[in-house]
Amino acid sequence: MKRILIILLAMVAFQLNAQDLNLYKKVVKELSSPKYKGRGYAFDGANKAGKYLEKEFQKAGVDEVVCQPFKLNINTFPGKMQLLVDGKKLVPGEDFTMREFSPGVKGEYKLYYIDTLNYNSEKIFADLARPENKDAFVVCDFWFTYKHSADFKRLQSKAGCSNAGLIYTWNEPLKFYKAYGERVIEKPMIWVTASSFPTNAKSVKMNIENEFLQDNECFNVIAKVEGKRHDKCYLFTAHYDHLGVLGKKVFFAGAHDNASGTATIVTLAAHYAKNRPEYDMYFVAFSGEDANLRGSEWYANNPSAPLQQVRYLINLDMIADNNPVQYCEVSDPGMKGYELFEKINSQKGYFKSLNRGKLAGNSDHYPFAQRGVPCIFLMNDDGDAYKYYHTIHDTWENALFDNYEPIFKIVVDFIEQY
Ligand SMILES: [Zn+2]
Fold it and tell me: Which of 22, 89, 166, 327 sits between 20 and 30 A of 365, alpha carbons compared?
């Protein structure tokens, strides 16, 4: 009889875990789907994802869900996205991508290749001043431009030189960033893979449309589970926005970055809604992270409860990977908590080890760390999924599920013991 009971209990425990993983996978898959257009600002993708999350938190059984609006200026590429080099069509996201602050461009342009072996800036500017080179696109290896940044700054400005724009070659895979998209520079700037772009082409034909969104409204989604006590609280954070689209067809699914972390806090909310915690808990899904921590910065200035009441903040960003070593960053007041994370991990062996890096402005924990909040940032980087980071291949199909359970468990153990 006792044996049957143990088997039954084991089955229930297994089901609970399985349930969490199923919910986790469901949310990751949904957020990575084409419906949300890469959770950027074109086509209202991020906001649609936010509305979906609001419903998921409600279904998780939390006590309250609030959407916290804020505004940002952001450059987007919702329209035409065509580039032909000597008549050969390049594929957006694979062969070329835009810098986030690039304007659109339409027309046919001559190419002017920078001679990186015999670099001579005087000759370059003299060449480009010649009538036949007026309106040329300058082509150069991206890393080389760093060695002569003053010259390349000049090439970017209309007053500095008459070239029409810049094409930087880069070794694949091409990555797209959104962090500096709050402005648009004077000339188009395009990144191409070195392998897809010829070294001696004559011209490019382009039709690329951008749209700068001024005061674009987006929102953080804040779910609350009430604890037995209200004098202190825990914060679980993850950003749900991502990089959006490159034209009408190509979108950045962002399964690892960061549908994974968002889905995890949804399952944590479901867990604590069923297991009433000691202290109040807030599960905050931020928007605007890939646009430079805009949502978390806003929340840190307008928190649900005073930041001095936060016992600990746990930020999850990119956990759909399989690295057995778990990366983290910790604020100074968070070090006591970090020692507990280390202790739990060495007892339970969730990860081979924790690897604590230097605190940096690379995710949503940072605005809170700057304000003295005890916090940890957990990011599973450098696994097999990491090679897709900020590429169009960070998809549901390429997401890995090895680390969801250890993350979930280490967090729950931590809350129990802290
Ligand atoms: Zn990102």
Answer: 22
Whether residue 274 is found in the same domain as residue 135: no
Residue 12 lies in a domain: no
Q: Report CA(238)–ligand 1 centroid distance (Å).
A: 11
Question: Does 182 map to a domain?
Answer: yes
pLDDT in tens, 243-272: 999 999 999 999 999 999 999 999 999 999
Calculate how far, in angstroms, residue 223's C-alpha sits from the geometric centre of ligand 1. 22
What's the domain count of the chain? 2
CATH of the domain at 288: 3.40.630.10
Tell how far the Cα of 294 is from the centroid of ligand 1, in angstroms: 13
228 and 191 within one domain: no
Rg (CA), the chain: 24
At residue 287, the 3 state secondary structure works out as coil
Give the model's pLDDT for residue 19: 62
Each residue of 89-119: pLDDT tens digit? 999 999 999 999 999 999 999 999 999 999 9
* Section 370-381 average pLDDT: 96
Which domain covers residue 133, as residue numbers?
81-208
Residue 41: name the closest of 13, 10, 77, 81 by CA: 77
Residues 141, 249, single domain; the answer is no
Q: How far is the CA of 258 from the centre of ligand 1 (A)?
A: 7
Task: Quote the ligand 1 centre to 319 CA distance (angstroms).
Answer: 12
Q: pTM score, two decimals?
A: 0.93
pLDDT of residue 3: 56
